[in-house]
Model the fold of this input.
Amino acid sequence: MNDLTPKERIIRSLNKESVDRAPVICPGGMMNSAIVDVMNKTGHTLPDGHHDSQLMAEIANDVQENTGFENFGIPFCMTVEAEVLGSEINYGTLACEPKIQKEVFPSVKEVLYQDLGAMAKNKRVNAIIEATYQLSKEYSDIPVFGSITGPLSTAASLVDPIPFLKELRKNPAEAHRVVDYATNHIIELAKLMVEGGASVITIADPTATGEILGPAMFDEYAVRYLNKIIDAIHETNTPVIVHICGKMNAVRKFVPAIKSDAISTDSSISLRKLKEDYPELTTMGNLSTYLLEFGEAEKVAKQTEKLKLDGIDIIAPACGLSTSTPLANITAMTNRVKGA
Amino acid sequence: MSLNKQELFDKLAASIVDMDEDLTIELSNQVIAEGIDAYEAIVNGLTVGMNQAGKLFDEEEYFVPELLMCSDAMYSGLNILKPHIKINSHETKRKAVIGVIEGDTHDIGKNLVKIMLETGGYDIVDLGRDVSPTTFVERAKEEQAEFIFISTLMTTTMEGMNEVVEILVEEKIREDYKVLIGGGPVSQSYADKIGADGYAENAAEAVKLANNIVAAYGNEL
Done:
């Protein structure tokens, strides 16, 4: 039991099997862990690492070695899905993550649909898959997390989000068509990641929050299409983690309906309480990224200890890490989980 | 006539709460056709409706899609009524610039704050998204704004808010503006840390915060 590899530990945790201790991970994607401290130390840097598979793998490995997170988390952004489907991307800088420069369509009615297979043809997707393959072959004990952007965030990265949100209500038929389209391409990306050797897929969908959508539309759009992706990934026998942003008040009751193997939440949520209410959930989170960026290492360790005592199944940052988070604070977190 | 007028205003307000843009347009045209004061219709009809929508949003009855549809109805009504406002029939508005800080292109929250501030009677200059700290300051000067509203959804770009405050301090014009911040990763403690004048958790709160500042400082602002 004491000699679980990081990969065994996370897989056992996601299967609800016994483990020696909680894993400590950072999934990548929206929760990118390529911090400036690590990149400056190693000289392997972004934004080039968003495109070059070798560099991407090196950065992922640098992060894993330096931070103590027990996984590789790639890609380092949440823009690749929208890039493939046509939006303009700004790749950012060393310290600033890539972003959607411009959503390509003004309305769900004007989306130009691409055939399936588009993901496999994209250069940056291929860099991600090659990096996944390299890392999974070279370090077979450490899980590669393939991070994908959820269906509503992807759709709202294709269609200008203001009209998009209105059209969820005003034009549900066409809105469903766009979200389903995004979903089908996302499934292809996730499957490519699994074929490349990813052990876990994580989905973050920051547009799909209770605060933005409200309960009815969260159920109608978010739960439905998240589950479509999860079902497709489960067919490949790969576990899935879903991260839900925000305070969740309005949508808490839908959490058990999400078929993922774990639920990750923001720091404002008491995971202990969520577990009490829904004991069947495997919980992940939720160390404040504000504390990680601005707090003292000692306080980070203390807060991590609290998550351990609360029995949180997988310990991770609660949200997207700031790239200027001090490395010492992250190691304070990972060392405390590992008992040091 | 006066009952009739009030009834029409109530219907206008209800059409906005009900997100019935076509009805808002129809009723706004009726206001003009019947020679009713356009400014009164805006204040007692459109604004009342949008404030009710804001309240429902605050109470988590309405969410972002609903609030956006209410605001579409309101702006449609406003487009019809505005050209008919008699000059000098209302007081001067407080001016503000608003934008999403550089590095971030998420502007849903900023747009909601803008809508609610306009409803609340503020004159808003929208700088858009991905706005540099220097641009915030330069545009605030050009527009002779009293408020600078800055939003971000990303932890990676929060530091830009601090830079806006620093530029104001460096240029010795910090006292000329009230800097109010908001957005997902932002908090009151962050506002305190960078020396901003306030933090609001959502669009409705942003209006309250601005109103409180106006009440506290009045013409000294």
About this structure: The mean pLDDT of chain A is 96. The two ends of chain A are 18 Å apart (CA to CA). Residues 172-196 of chain A form the longest helix (25 residues).
